[in-house]
Amino acid sequence: MTDKQTAAGRPRPLEGVRVLDCSTIIAAPFGAMLLADYGAEVIKVEHPRGDGLRLSGPQKNGVGLNYAFYGRNKRNIVLDLSSADGQQILRDLAAKSDVLLENFRPGVMEKWHLGWEQLHEVNRRLVMLRMTGFGQSGPYSARPGFGTLAESMSGFAHINGHPDGPPTLPPFGLADGIAGLSAAYAVMLALYHRDLHDGEGQMIDIAIIEPILHLMGAQASVFDQLGQIQQRTGNRTHNNAPRNTYKTKEGRWVAISTSSQAIAERVLRLTGRPDLVDEPWFASGGERAQHADLLDAVVGGWIGERGIDEVMRAFAEAGAAVAPVYDISQVMEDPQYRSLGTITDVPDAVLGPVKMQNLLFRMSGTPGEVRHTAPALGQDTDEVLGEILGLTPARLRELHEAGVIEPMVAKRPGGTGR
Q1: Which CATH architecture has domain 18-215+341-401?
Q2: If we measure between CA atoms, which residue out of 375, 388, 270 comes closest to residue 320?
Q3: Distance, CA of 357 to CA of 353 (rounded, Å)
Q4: Which positions are annotated as active-site residues?
């Protein structure tokens, strides 16, 4: 089996695509990870200090578990881009690559002579994705930008939470994740156009404040045409009811959706109020939402008198939509997730097998594969620069001694080093 094949011996869809991941933290690195999962050769280019995500969040035996996930399936090199030698090495790598992702503030890459115009001149086929909080232009472009700011400015926080509570931010990198998914999609569009049409790459500008706004649905159209601004409704929605979370007899929680009329009718018949189905207002999801207090009282009362197993069984028999509210330990034990292989064991040089989310989706002909967690800082530097650029051991020693490709922190135990 070659490194370009899955364990099943089938090719990965992006084999032969080389990606330089010069980004840090979550959004753009997540996009690069998705490309790596499906076979792209992704080379993570880190500053000698390392990506700040290495030290962010839970750790075990010196391994940052967040970084182990977002850096998986990548090769890793150290390169000081503020040095002339580092800049030249990146230009040389870009000349032999298909994609470069970066998330520095606008103007930083240009200061290093690594902007779009310079890299496009070096490699006309290169696709360059630039990820920033606010985009490459506009009055906010120079501001530091993070997912939290996008979750706030997009209107997400405004509609998230209970009516009598404050705007509520998500407890994870929601906007970053959405931007990362968008990045992978944008890169594939650019590669497809390059290879099918004129053979040239292009520059992609992603502002983290925008992809999450798209997921907010038709709010702009609703405001434009009706003057309405969506407000916080907790677990409820203006579109249908009952739709909420409900506590069972033993204190577990379940969530119910009645997006279809047939499901709403089944729920009310199941919970002992078939008479409500015959009410004129029940025939419309929007009108049902105006009677959410009544419907929640009926459904919540019925669920509160029963254990979760009985609730789940009764809803399944009635053909109604319900799901338990899980924490991560319950996700990992659920038979449906197990059947899909949603959580997989990934080898790590220090920790051994590490459980993490598997591939985002399954492909029958050219599947991807999660091969390893994030490598140590600079673990592949000498190999990559020797293999791709033909740098000699003597030249590599010079660059190490000059600090251009030398990590400032110790490599992880078990890493191959140099």
Answers
A1: 3-Layer(aba) Sandwich (3.40)
A2: 270
A3: 13
A4: 176
